[in-house]
């Protein structure tokens, strides 16, 4: 065979695209390394990674209660000095109690857990789901995962039986889905969100995409909904969720509800697919009783922002027992999710309650993060409103804005000469001039003839927003 080359390794991996960590992100890391070494040649003093929802890289502070509990889990010897923890280090009695409780169920965080996760943590998640939705949950259908991405990977492996297996994916979408389907050599069936109605989910569009794919011989097996949306931030109404579930019931589609941004909602309120499905099952058990729903959640987003700890879970409703056995086997192949990540999931779903010693600080920190995100989202939105050729819906949720952008003909020609799509060309020039890294809309999918970019609003301050405005004006003037 000779050496490995691009021509002889797995072609499906070569084919996969993952823009949030693509060429722009790689170049931004090169710039970051140069700045670290004291390089003075760049036209900016810092790199702003607005390309990826990575809150703590962008100065979001970890929640004290979470990290204090984790510190004891990592170093149980601290419990020999409870007096020091309480009197000198600012730990509260509920931190110590929670750490002891977790240690009693986990043993050591350095040991593997059961493949689907630590039973006591699954019970905490079940209680959280019951409180959130008003319907009990069964811990035996809950699986802990290394972030939601790992859960998505598991489910897609189970769903995709052949190259004609199709999955309905919202466009624009988080590129994890199309990249994973590429690697699995399965079929992505895109359905477009409606930008004119704040990136709403249109059932007509979903049906059209489904019927076209079916006519082309695709065996469409599931629909993915990202709610609140990434990259759009749109939050689905209860009526939209009902219509998706009705369609899924009618066409026997598995519903994958990616709900990792459920606490990042600025407009309206979050409705879980689980709650709406269970209500529909009460109203019409014959019609909705067999709907298969997988809902995913994660510690990476929201006010928790603990992406590096890789924790998440998915819950299954309505799946065949033998299929669940195969899902269990699949998660067993990777042994278990990171145990410290599992513990963080427990803390996320079961935070300090009113009256607990840590509650006041927890509420203060949580609220400050939420308000900070909303303020920065608004500042960005206001800046985009002033930029020529840029249109952006009002921030609704998640951590992103996804404005559309109209570029002058000169910029389109320059991009073609550069061998790039116009939105990539714009984002590359922006990075080179300002150190701000965005993701071109083509990385998420966009309607033919439209251009967008995605930016997070996680970076602290608003000075970098000014950099984008200044660059944009100069760019438009250069290519007019």
What kind of sheet is the major sheet?
7 strands, mixed
Tell me what portion of residues adopts beta-strand conformation.
5-15%
CATH class of the largest domain: Alpha Beta
Shape: globular
Structure annotation, total helices: 18
Low-pLDDT windows of residues:
none
Family: Belongs to the class-I pyridoxal-phosphate-dependent aminotransferase family. Alanine aminotransferase subfamily.
Cofactor: pyridoxal 5'-phosphate
Pfam families: Aminotran_1_2
InterPro entries: ALAT1/2-like (IPR045088), Aminotransferase_I/II_large (IPR004839), PyrdxlP-dep_Trfase (IPR015424), PyrdxlP-dep_Trfase_major (IPR015421), PyrdxlP-dep_Trfase_small (IPR015422)
Write the layout of secondary structure elements.
Blueprint: H1 11-15, H2 23-36, E1 48-49, H3 64-74, H4 82-87, H5 93-106, H6 119-133, E2 142-145, H7 147-159, E3 165-171, H8 176-183, E4 187-192, H9 203-215, E5 219-226, H10 238-251, E6 254-258, H11 273-283, H12 285-288, E7 293-298, E8 312-317, H13 321-333, H14 339-349, H15 359-386, E9 390-391, E10 400-401, E11 404-405, H16 409-418, H17 422-434, E12 436-437, E13 439-440, E14 453-456, H18 463-479
Parallel strand pairs: 1-12, 3-4, 3-5, 5-6, 6-7
Antiparallel strand pairs: 2-8, 7-8, 9-11, 10-14, 13-14
């Amino acid at each position: 065979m000779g050496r490995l080359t691009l021509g002889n390794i797995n072609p499906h991996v070569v084919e996969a695209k993952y823009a949030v960590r693509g060429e722009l992100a790689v170049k931004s890391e090169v710039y970051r390394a140069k700045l670290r070494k004291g390089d003075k040649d760049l036209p900016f003093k810092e790199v702003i990674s607005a390309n990826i929802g990575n809150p703590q890289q962008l100065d979001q502070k970890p929640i004290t209660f979470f990290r204090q509990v984790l510190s004891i889990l990592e170093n149980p010897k601290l419990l020999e000095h409870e007096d020091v923890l309480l009197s000198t280090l600012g730990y509260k009695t509920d931190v110590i109690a929670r750490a002891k409780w977790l240690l009693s169920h986990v043993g050591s965080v350095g040991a593997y857990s059961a493949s689907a996760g630590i039973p006591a943590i699954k019970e905490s998640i079940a209680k959280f789901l019951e409180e959130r939705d008003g319907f009990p949950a069964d811990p035996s259908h809950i699986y802990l995962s290394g972030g939601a991405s790992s859960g998505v990977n598991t489910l897609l492996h189970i769903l995709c039986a052949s190259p004609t297996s199709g999955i309905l994916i919202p466009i624009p979408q988080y590129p994890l889905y199309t990249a994973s389907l590429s690697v699995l050599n399965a079929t992505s069936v895109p359905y477009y969100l409606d930008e004119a109605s704040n990136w709403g989910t249109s059932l007509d569009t979903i049906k059209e995409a489904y019927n076209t794919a079916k006519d082309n011989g695709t065996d469409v097996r599931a629909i993915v909904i990202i709610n609140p949306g990434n990259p759009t931030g749109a939050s689905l109404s209860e009526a939209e969720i009902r219509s998706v579930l009705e369609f899924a019931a009618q066409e026997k589609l598995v519903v994958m509800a990616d709900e990792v941004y459920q606490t990042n909602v600025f407009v309206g309120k979050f409705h879980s697919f689980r709650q709406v499905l269970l209500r529909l099952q009460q109203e019409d058990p014959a019609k909705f009783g067999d709907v298969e729903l997988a809902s995913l959640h994660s510690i990476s987003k929201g006010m928790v922002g603990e992406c590096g700890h890789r924790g998440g879970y998915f819950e299954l409703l309505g799946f065949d027992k033998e299929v669940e056995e195969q899902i269990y086997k699949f998660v067993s192949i990777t042994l278990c999710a990171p145990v410290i990540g599992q513990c963080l999931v427990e803390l996320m779903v079961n935070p300090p309650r009113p009256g607990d010693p840590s509650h006041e600080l927890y509420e203060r920190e949580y609220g400050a993060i939420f308000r900070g995100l909303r303020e920065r989202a608004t500042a960005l939105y206001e800046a985009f409103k002033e930029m020529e050729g840029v249109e952006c819906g009002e921030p609704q949720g998640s951590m992103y804005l996804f404005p559309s952008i109209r570029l002058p003909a000169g910029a389109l020609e320059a991009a073609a000469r550069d061998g790039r799509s116009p939105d990539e060309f714009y984002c590359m020039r922006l990075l080179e001039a300002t150190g701000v890294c965005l993701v071109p809309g083509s990385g998420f999918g966009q309607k033919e003839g439209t251009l967008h970019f995605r930016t997070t609003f996680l970076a602290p301050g608003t000075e970098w927003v000014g950099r984008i405005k200044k660059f944009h004006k100069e760019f438009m003037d250069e290519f007019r």
